[in-house]
Amino acid sequence: MRGLKTMAALAALGMGTAAIAQTPAAQPDPEKKICRKTLETGSLVKKTRQCFTRAEWTRIAEAARNNAQYIQDNQMGRPAGGP
Description:
It is built from two helices and two strands, in the order αββα. It has helices at residues 2-22, 54-73; strands at residues 33-39, 47-53. Strands 1-2 form a two-stranded antiparallel sheet. It is flat, with a radius of gyration of 25 Å.
């Protein structure tokens, strides 16, 4: 009896996830404005509000990743005078 209840519960769970997987994912609007607060360098309290579209935030994040990768690839962060 206990095994039957477990199997029924698993079957119901499986049907629920299948229904969720079949629904199309809503695409976020790339033109929606998103505002974020960033801390000012050298200050513990001063913040600056920056507003960009979702597409612009994506480009900013990609540029930051590319810049960090460039620095790592070219070892620009190594100390001077090292081997």
